[in-house]
Amino acid sequence: MWRRVTSVSHLTFAHKSTVNKNACTFKCWESFTTEIPRKEKTTYQRAKTPFITFVLGGPGSGKGTQCMKIVENFGFTHLSAGELLRREIASNSADGIMILNTIKEGKIVPSELTIKLIQKEMELSDNYKFLIDGFPRSEDNRKAFEQIFGAEPDVVLFFDCPEDEMVKRVLNRNQGRVDDNIDTIKKRLKVFTALNLPVVNHYLEKGKLYKINGVGTVDEIYKQVHPVFSSFHFEQVRV
Ligand SMILES: Nc1ncnc2c1ncn2[C@@H]1O[C@H](COP(=O)(O)OP(=O)(O)OP(=O)(O)O)[C@@H](O)[C@H]1O
Ligand SMILES: Nc1ccn([C@H]2C[C@H](O)[C@@H](COP(=O)(O)O)O2)c(=O)n1
Ligand SMILES: [Mg+2]
Questions:
Q1: How far apart are CA 53 and CA 154, in angstroms?
Q2: Tens-place pLDDT, residues 214-224
Q3: Beta-carbon neighbour count of residue 57 at 10 Å?
């Protein structure tokens, strides 16, 4: 399956017309206000149908936390762009120093490099359901992904969270990240507003965005997320 291909672009093309048609039947769903409508069921098959979810939101908005719950409930493979970049730094690769300096500055790593890491993980996976967390971070990320993969995501989740809450969470995170300090957080928030919000608006206009209220307990927030995925027709690991 995925393991045998050298590029995923031909795989992603195969099903997109169906998926996009479904996705365009609704606008931005603020799942804390309305129920998710029933949609025409499409069966996402293991062999040929990668199902791509982009997970967007500011630093500390809870993307990684909610992704863990989606993995647990729906069997997705979680690919965090930030985590892949941190792994690249830790492996002392040729790009490691540049990535480290970029992350310390709260800036965005060149798109082609991040996409190469994501693509490699997708090709190594036997799964067909992917959560791509923290990507695209900019219009440049988004356009480069579309060009390289020749496809768009099926679903875009956006965790909407006030800045003061995000700052509080990041400063309490305690995972030893080089960017979890107040100076870098301020820079990341500026970059988020300037570069990520245009991406959010792009998917809002395309009718693919599910805006989730990122304030509340983890379970309260997940209650808004679950119906997004249960409205699609793939098997659940656990209900
Ligand atoms: N609903 C919540 N209420 C309180 N704390 C939360 C909530 N969700 C996540 N957290 C905590 O906030 C911190 C940031 O969450 P998480 O790592 O999921 O955010 P993120 O969006 O992935 O951030 P980043 O973009 O920096 O990777 C973590 O310590 C997490 O345990
Ligand atoms: N598409 C991406 C995703 C992440 N980065 C860099 C810059 C971020 O501040 C850092 C940490 O990401 P996070 O774990 O918070 O999602 O990684 C990037 O350059 N491009
Ligand atoms: Mg994260």
A1: 6
A2: 999 999 999 99
A3: 24
Each domain of the chain, given as residue ranges in start order, spans 49-230
Stated pTM of the model: 0.85
Q: Two tokens at 111? A: 């798109």
Q: Is the ipTM of this complex over 0.90?
A: yes
If you take atom 9 of ligand 1, which residue's CA is the nearest one? 62
Q: Which region, left, alpha or beta, applies to residue 227 given φ > 0 means left and ψ of -120 to 50 means alpha? A: alpha
215: CB partners within 8 A, 6+ apart: 161, 162, 165, 221
Q: Which residues surround ligand 3, an ion (CB under 5 A)?
A: 64
The CATH number of domain 49-230, selected from 3.40.50.720, 3.40.50.300, 3.40.50.2000, 3.30.450.20: 3.40.50.300
Residue positions forming the annotated binding site for a ribonucleoside 5'-phosphate: 86, 107-109, 134-137, 177, 188
What angle (nearest 5°) sits at the alpha carbon of residue 136, between those of residues 104 and 131?
Answer: 105
Q: Which residues pair with 159 in a beta bridge?
A: 57, 212
